[in-house]
Amino acid sequence: MKRGTLYFFCGKMGAGKTTRSRTLAGKENAVLISEDEWLSTLYPNQIESFSDYRRYSSILKPLVFSHVENLLKTGSNVVLDFPANTVEQRKWFSELASTAGAPSKMIYIKASDATCLQQIAKRRIEQPERAIFDTRSVFEQVNKFFQEPGEAEKLNIQVVESNPSPQPRK
Q1: According to the CATH classification, is domain 6-162 in 3.40.50.300?
Q2: H or E element in which residue 113 lies
Q3: pLDDT beyond 70 at 42
């Protein structure tokens, strides 16, 4: 039986992972599962800090793992809008694909800090409910954990360069 493909993303906060995951899900006729959506639905108003996020994310992952494993085994493509920004996080995705016997592809959105901060500022305006987390200080805190993927991880990686939107001239 043909297995679905697992797609996941690596990139700094604000690089554009969520935007690209939505586009990819449509293009690949894939089930899109967003960590932010699941966390905000299951734990409304309970995530007030980065440590809260890490705690609730770790509670969510076993459920997501078994759910996505089943989807992949039925032949459905799955786009996971969950961060794959550390070696440990990427191991989780690799283990998921391996357990399901499915191929996987990681899209690494390479973006400068300036680009990410510009996109975070834009998102803060477009999604005011995220303003508490979409700040330079949270970006810097989260960015400390970011690990660029390496060849030793043996992942199927597509690298995409993210460039900032041009600023209007004054």
Answers
A1: yes
A2: helix 113-126
A3: yes
